[in-house]
Amino acid sequence: MPAAPAMQRNDAASDLDALLALNRDYIASVQNSDVRRFEEILGDDFLCSNPDGSLVDRAAFLNQTARPVTISNIQALDVNIRLMGDFAIIHARTTYTLPDGRQGAGRYTDIWARREGRWLAVAAHVTRC
């Protein structure tokens, strides 16, 4: 028997809250080189398209995350989460401060999959403006 519409809205709201929190964790983990948190929230099959055009797998992404971060004050703005059953797409823009004090900006798209009841990031695409 299908869930009542109100139940589906509550589930969607819960998923949205979870994904908003995971998005904040993802951004904070980039800023703080938090490899441990990424180990928890990335799927084993995670792939990331970097701003330089390279495509890295989970292991390479964790290695690049472990390097000292040269930018600061990373902020995610205009976060748009699109829920699609057991998948979600997050689009957002970023602002940050470069080492020389100039402002930088970019966009990202993250793909999340619900696996065994948990949301895991399975893909990311990052651009710089």
Q: What strand line-up does the widest sheet have?
A: 2-1-6-5-4-3
Give the N-to-C terminal Cα separation. Answer: 48 Å
Our count of domains comes out at: 1
Strand content: over 45%
What is the helix tally? 3
Secondary-structure arrangement, i.e. CATH architecture = Roll
Structural class estimated from helices and strands: alpha+beta
Biggest sheet descriptor: 6 strands, mixed
Per the principal axes of the C-alpha atoms, what is the gross shape?
globular
Please trace the helix and strand order, writing H or E for each element.
HHEEHEEEE
Spans where pLDDT lies below 50 across 5 or more residues = none
CATH class: Alpha Beta
**DSSP strand count:** 6
CATH topology type: Nuclear Transport Factor 2, Chain: A
Overall pLDDT, averaged? Answer: 93
Whole-angstrom Rg: 16 Å
Helix content: 25-40%
